[in-house]
Amino acid sequence: MRILTHKRPLGPPYTEELLRSPRGIFEQLYDRTNCCHGTAERDDPVFVVGRKGSGKTAFLVGTSFVDGSKVILIKSEDAYHEIERLRLRYTATVGPLFAENLAHVWQVLLTHAAMLLSYRVPGLRHTDEARLIASYLSSYGNPSYLEPGKLLARVGRALSDVLVSSSPGLTVEEMCASLRTDVATYTSAHRSFMDLVSRKQARLYVVVDNLEDLHVHVETLRTTLSALFRATRDFADATETLPFRVRFAFPAELVRRLRDLTANPEKDFLNYLVIRWTAAELMTIAGNRLRRYLDLYHHDQLRLLGLPRQHDERDTQMAEATLRALLPPGTIRNGLGSEEDPVAYIMRHTQLLPRHLIQILNEILARPARQCGGLPVASPRDVLEGVREAELRIVDGILSSYSLDYPYMAAALGYLKNHIPNALTCSELHRAFNAAGVARSGVDYSDFLEGALDVGVLGVVERSTSRYSIGRFSYTFAETLRPVEGEDRICVHPLFMFRLFDRGGIRRLREQGNLPVYPYGSDIGHYDYD
Description:
The protein has 25 helices and twelve strands. By secondary structure, it is an alpha/beta fold. The strands form three sheets. A five-stranded parallel β-sheet has the order 2-3-4-1-5, sandwiched between helices. Strands 8-11-9-10-12 form a five-stranded mixed β-sheet. Strand 6 and strand 7 form a beta hairpin. Helix 16 (279-297) crosses helix 17. It starts with 14 loop residues before the first helix and ends in an 11-residue tail after the last strand.
């Protein structure tokens, strides 16, 4: 199975596709040199939080793989579906099922996934405890082949039957504990599982990936999500006694809403890792993946590219040299007419997310690679056209991920098209907003400005050089960006230029001498802004 191909020299931008590949391929492409990996390895967070395209799923399983742990990956839609279906049935048949009660259901479902994983670990499988676990699980399907989603569906149905048919006087926790199959009870299987994993000192992880369209369902899943946070607090508090760990991924775009779902956010949403990347870390990922591609298809031509036969994945300069070997030498002319380093041009068209950079480079380098499998050395035109093609999909993804909080953003940008320069004062933006009739999209100016800053459409100008307007954008910082009226200037992120300007608008900006915007943090450490 080929992951790095001529059409996608850097491989897929989605981790899920890598996880469907043999584990060895994932481990080869997973980057261990970045700060987030080090933090996850040290702190072992329960929640991994990041923007869409930040690599949440990779961090869910990557640190566990590296330290030799065994991992079972659950699709979030499977888990949420079963919990919500159980809750609705119980509510319709018996009465309300509150988050505190539903937390026990979460615990039982995740424990079943961990038991399935334990049976599949070679060092645990051939034991009396594992045989009892397998006998218990066999009522739900053959534990050697049973998919986690199907296990959750069948256990969820059995739990639902138990809850709606139990005699009055039992707590939800007691009802859950009374679950049994034709072969054994859940209590006995759970006890064997605890004894087995403790005795063998195995490290097991149940990880639940991110639901891409969670923003659409967050209100519907309010009780289910609140119960999850309560359940994971219990898991975190019982780290020393539980035989497995859990880890969930959530979109950073929804963190504020998710924290509102829990009664005690300081406790329930405490142990989490926020993923942020530096430009140098993204460069390392890109250079290392490209080197693997070159080793697969063009190893005999490395000398033509000026690259050494041995590549050190920890060497950021070597990673940069690999990327530059496939990009045009010197400079390229950007849309505003100035000469620019090609790496700087590419990097400033990302929001410092791996998916953005991988999508852009795949689009750029696939163009020359299509020529009979030749060396994918890009021309200046390949760079310009590749960035433009990729940014269409990138921007759609960004706007979609923020659509719950800012559903008006795409329409508002359409109204503003060609009405503003790419850097201006807040007062000028306000006047243009009114003149363009943006209020017809259903938003007032203050809400639009707040949303555009949060999404990363707009940033705050930090300073200007002879070549760039340097802008600060919200995705780079933990704090909220809020410009001061009458003092601050704002600027348009390069990714959103095509949303706010057509070709004629770009030409007018060029004729007026407007500088391109360089997002703060996009330089790789030694690039000269001036």
